[in-house]
Design goal:
This protein is mainly alpha-helical. Helix content is 76%, strand content 0%. The termini are far apart.
């Protein structure tokens, strides 16, 4: 249940963050906003680690180096979400993001990428993705 609630909160906050970042980027620029957002996130996370952290940062030596690219991916996400919202608007951009996330997550699980447990892809997933694509078409279809 906590995982479901956490996922719902994440989706809501990501939508709000995308709009906030886009509005900020209209005033100061895309790259500048990305730097500010990532910098503020770093400072707050560092404070939380110092106050509440219970992990062991020294174990980072045992991690695969590719997993350190999460920060780089965060920069790409921040930049491309702002650009997408600026170009397409929040709802259309978010729908496309969700579709891309679902397809990518399915591929990661199908092929067991990044040490993820492999799952079998079934017709339910295919039908779900087809419905998502149909939903995008319906939402963007303008009757003239």
């Amino acid at each position: 249940m906590l995982g479901i609630l956490s996922s719902i909160i994440s989706g809501m906050v990501m939508s709000i963050q995308g709009v906030f970042n886009t509005r900020l980027s209209e005033k100061i620029g895309l790259l500048e906003t990305t730097a500010i957002v990532q910098g503020i996130g770093f400072v707050i996370t560092l404070l939380l680690v110092l106050i509440l952290g219970k992990g062991n940062i020294h174990n980072i030596k045992m991690c695969k180096k590719i997993y350190l690219l999460g920060g780089v991916l965060g920069i790409i996400i921040t930049f491309t979400v702002m650009y997408g919202i600026k170009s397409l608007g929040p709802s259309y951009c978010t729908i496309l993001i969700l579709l891309a996330q679902v397809i990518t997550a399915c591929l990661i699980e199908i092929f067991g990428l990044f040490d993820t447990k492999t799952i079998k892809f079934n017709w339910n997933e295919i039908i779900g993705i087809v419905f998502m694509i149909a939903g995008i078409i319906v939402l963007k279809w303008q009757i003239k």
